[in-house]
Write a structure and sequence with these properties.
The complex is a heterodimer of chains A (about 150) and B (about 750). Chain A has about 150 residues and is an alpha+beta fold. Helices cover about 35% and strands about 10% of the residues of chain A. Chain A is globular, with a radius of gyration of 15 Å. Classes of the chains: A alpha+beta (about 150), B alpha+beta (about 750).
Chain lengths: ~150, ~750
């Protein structure tokens, strides 16, 4: 099957029954996307499908053939971090970092849809992404900061 | 920071320039770009996948295992069980921090099943999916026996006294004011978002284990014993850990299975524990049942304290949840008795979970103190003031540093406690009833043995090595800070290497003592390396500072220069080049406080005060934690940013403990029934209120030269008690069995 991941079209020898998470992690070795439950409860596997946040563990890869999929590897580059990534570091919005890729993509989807989010918007948008380290207050601050940085940029 | 303001009670050195700043964590860029590699991300050539078969009874015997159908499925390499795998050994009794494992029975040791989800076989296949299909196709026949997963705990032996002074029973009998209650905390599951995982790979009798471990050296030791191979043949690597909260301290059976299976099939094997199994076979905080009796004078002076408690454990293992940890020293009381016993059930073996013992113990004690304050019609902070001890009354030792009352006072100011109307339900805002509660907390301050090496290279970088782990608390960053501080080499030129058993012995990531333990070792190693460098600058074939003594020189910003001279000196790389060496290496050590001189001279603990506000909407029975203030006395903060993050995160977990979390067992089948993250609820972003964290910042120089104690656990202690006190204040209902349920409050 053909998938467009982070802007790059790729032919993947995956079965129709395989989840997007399995294809991303196991067939493409893009391991920034994490698995925490494999049943839509934790958000660690969040990716963007055509700009919307989705749990890749509950998404069949075959259904994404006509879509653009963005994983954490496509959000920013090591030498040019996305404003969200910068803000996460500055606000220390992470501890163990395991939920972090999912949080970042959920936040990216929010800002794309709502460039001027309220703190409550952030809380709601990120409530499908569990953080057992409990970095929630910092996550909210980081997303607010990033949204502001992104509004300031042309 | 607030209370330490200018006062320098124990003659601490000036806060050095790198310390106490607000540095971002150095592993941040890796973590925000998805490049931090966790155990389950490891892929090795030819790697196979293993999925265990979990028992579907909670007690009984395996009669037969039929794996014929499973073996014929696509991609399946093998199915192993007791009948066809090399047996595993038990560990010898532990010594210090090695040989520690909570579930001591090796996998497949006998045909007995003692808890639901115990591993009875394991399937190996080319993909995870094929292994799962094979595991599901294994037919196991059991002879089931009656099991016990009941909630009512009962002692399996007479209570054992842990601490005693005076005559608690007699003093209680004649006390004018009393509290006599039982407090219950439920089974809680760590549930880090990262699932436990092992990738095992053998080569010529040597095994490398990529692990989710908070204690790689202990893991190495246990696996060496259980696999029956020399210790030097076992290497354990944990570079990044998706947190653990204690659940990843000691090895669990899946790790031994993964290693054993990889040895059998002759290929690397990955085993990722499922979320469901995380409720069964990798430990939990056990259920506790704690009977507290407090006796006091009408003036609020404690005269008697009795704390008798039980915790649940498994059939085979004696896991003790040390609920009485803080009881003997927290308050001044002449008559005290702490005693405990275990209660057995057909459950997986429990283990340490964040703030083991103290967290459930302080829920009970601080709830009882709040009830006593109400019985006395006294402000709960005033009650603590009247019972503040001047020494640790359990062993008559002075406190190394105790500022509990100051925590209370600072917290009261920040929270606005003076505005509190103590009458139940008296405070209202926006149509909601407001409740305020307070609780004290404490956690031991400890240091363990550690070693480290620091290498100063020709490139002007420093490499620090120690076999500890970063569980998300910022250990990478702390190590870099210590080296930068001691060498003057910029922090971004410090390379931190940890998480590998080949490195010098480092501490386990438990007990909140990593920071305190590595400080002496790493500072000494760094100074030793600088000394070696300055030695090369003054002697040898072609020294840069001929005739100078090392003491006359210093290393500043990567250059060696004479003290007190303005000259720019010589780049450290040139010093090393002239000596024709690659690097200057230093070694350092820390000695443990446990059983050590300090612990015989001082009572070493951190303290804190927790203030909770809840809002209660009786019409809809809606309860929320709306605000939280935490004031912590944990020595000097080396890096306040991640430290604050630790406390906030612990408070968030404490909200879950108070209102959401309980692993429940199905009485018919003995299975943990809400074994997923939808039914076992943890706090989400929407549950987290504004959290105000203050550190008193009094250096505890008894513990280490920087005066730093750890903060990983203390934030969870007292949190649930502050919340249930606030719930009482809002509703008039005292909840003594966690979590607080809507049903508990319906009458309010
Ligand atoms: S792994 Fe997809 S939501 Fe948890
Ligand atoms: S940072 Fe550890 S789970 Fe979120």
């Amino acid at each position: 099957m053909r998938l467009t991941i982070n802007g790059v079209p790729r032919d993947v020898p995956a079965g129709d029954h395989e989840t997007l998470l399995a294809v991303i992690r196991e067939r493409l070795q893009l391991t920034g996307t994490k698995e925490g439950c494999a049943r839509g409860e934790c958000g660690a596997c969040t990716v963007l499908i055509d700009g919307r946040a989705a749990y890749s563990c509950l998404t069949l890869a075959a259904g994404c053939a006509d879509s653009a999929v963005t994983t954490i590897e496509g959000l920013g580059r090591a030498d040019a971090l996305h404003p969200l990534q910068q803000a996460f570091i500055e606000q220390d919005a992470l501890q163990c970092g395991f939920c972090t890729p999912g949080q970042l993509l959920a936040a990216a989807a929010l800002i794309a849809r709502t460039p001027r989010p309220s703190e409550d918007d952030v809380r709601v948008a990120l409530s499908g992404n569990l953080c057992r380290c409990g970095t929630y207050p910092k996550l909210v601050r980081a997303v607010m900061q990033a949204a502001e940085m992104m509004r300031a940029e042309p | 920071m607030s209370a330490a303001r200018g006062s320098n009670p124990v003659g601490a050195p000036e806060t050095p320039k790198v310390l106490g700043g607000k540095l971002p964590r150095i592993d941040g860029p890796l973590k925000v770009t998805g490049r931090a590699v966790y155990t389950s991300d490891i892929a090795l050539p030819g790697m196979l996948f293993a999925i265990p078969v979990r028992s579907t009874i909670a007690r009984g015997r395996i009669v037969s295992i039929d794996a014929n159908a499973a073996r014929k499925l696509p991609g399946v390499k093998a199915v192993y069980h007791r009948g066809n795998i090399k047996a595993f050994f038990r560990t010898a009794p532990p010594k210090g921090f090695s040989g520690l494992i909570d579930e001591k029975r090796p996998p497949f040791e006998d045909d007995e099943v003692r808890y639901y989800g115990q591993y009875v076989a394991v399937a190996v296949a080319q993909t995870m999916e094929q292994a799962k299909a094979a595991a599901d196709a294994v037919r196991v026949q059991y002879a089931a026996a009656a099991h016990n997963v009941g909630k009512q705990l009962g002692a399996d032996k007479p209570m054992k006294v842990e601490s005693e002074r005076g005559d608690a029973d007699k003093a209680f009998a004649s006390a004018p004011v009393k509290v006599d209650q039982v407090y219950i905390t439920p089974t809680e599951v760590h549930n880090p978002i990262e699932l436990h995982a092992t990738v095992a790979s053998w080569e010529k009798g040597h095994v490398t284990l990529y692990e989710t471990s908070q204690a790689i050296l202990n893991h190495q030791d246990v696996l060496h014993q259980m696999l029956g191979v020399p210790v030097e043949n076992v290497r354990v690597i944990t570079h990044f850990l998706g947190s653990g909260f204690g659940g990843k301290l000691w090895p669990w059976t899946h790790s031994i299975l993964a290693a054993g299976v990889a040895r059998e099939v002759g290929a690397p094997v990955k085993l990722v524990v499922s979320r469901q199994s995380m409720f069964e076979a990798v430990g939990h905080r056990p259920r506790t049942q704690q009977h507290f009796r407090l006796g006091a004078t009408p003036e609020g002076k404690l005269v008697s304290l009795s704390h008798e408690y039980l915790n649940q454990t498994s059939e085979l293992d004696d896991y003790k949840e040390d609920c009485g940890e803080a009881t003997p020293f927290m308050y001044s009381v002449p008559n005290l008795r702490v005693a405990s016993a275990l209660s057995r059930g057909n459950i997986g073996t429990p283990t340490a979970m964040r703030g083991p013992g103290a967290v459930p113990g302080l829920f009970a004690m601080e709830s009882a103190m709040d009830e006593l304050a109400i019985a006395l019609k006294m402000d709960p902070i005033e009650l603590r003031k009247r019972n503040e001890p001047t020494q640790d009354e359990s062993n008559k030792l002075p406190f190394s540093s105790r500022h509990l009352l100051e925590c209370m006072q600072v917290g009261a100011e920040k929270f606005g406690w003076a505005q509190r109307d103590p009458a139940v339900g008296a405070m209202k805002r926006d149509g909601l009833t407001i409740g305020w509660g307070v609780a004290a907390c404490s956690w031991g301050a400890m240091r363990s043995d550690a070693q480290a090496s620091v290498e100063i290279t020709r490139e002007g970088t420093a490499i620090v090595k120690t076999a500890t782990q970063d569980v998300g608390t910022g250990t990478y960053t702390v190590l870099a800070i210590i080296v930068a501080e001691a060498t003057g080499i910029a922090i971004d030129r410090v390379d931190v290497q940890l998480g590998d058993t080949r490195l010098p012995m480092g501490p386990i990531s438990g007990g909140s003592w990593v920071t305190a333990s590595v400080i002496p070792a790493v500072s000494n190693a760094a100074r030793d390396a600088v000394k070696a460098l300055l030695g090369m600058a003054t002697s040898g074939p072609n020294p840069a500072f001929k005739g100078a003594k090392p003491e006359d020189l210093q290393l500043v910003d990567g250059r060696v220069k004479r003290k007190g001279e303005a000259s720019s000196g010589v780049a450290l790389g040139d010093v090393l080049a002239r000596a024709n060496v690659r690097s200057a290496i230093g070694h350092g050590k820390s000695a443990t406080t446990m059983g050590g001189a300090e612990s015989r001279k001082y009572s070493l603990h951190s303290y804190g005060a927790q203030f909770a506000e809840v809002t209660w909407h009786p019409q809809t029975a809606r309860l929320r934690v709306s605000r939280f203030t935490s004031v912590i006395d944990a020595g000097r903060m080396l890096n306040p940013k991640p430290a604050r993050n630790q406390i906030e995160g612990a408070v968030v977990m404490g909200i879950g403990m108070a209102l959401l979390e309980e692993s429940r067992y199905d009485q018919r089948y003995g299975a943990p029934i809400n074994s997923n993250l939808a039914d076992y609820m943890v706090s989400t972003n929407a549950d987290a209120p504004p959290i105000d964290v203050t550190f008193l910042d009094y250096p505890d120089l008894v513990l280490n030269e920087m005066g730093a104690r750890g903060v990983g656990e203390i934030g969870l202690a007292g949190t649930a008690a502050a919340i249930t006190a606030a719930v009482y204040h809002a509703t008039g209902v005292r909840v003594r069995e966690l979590p607080v349920r809507i049903e508990d409050l319906l009458g309010a």
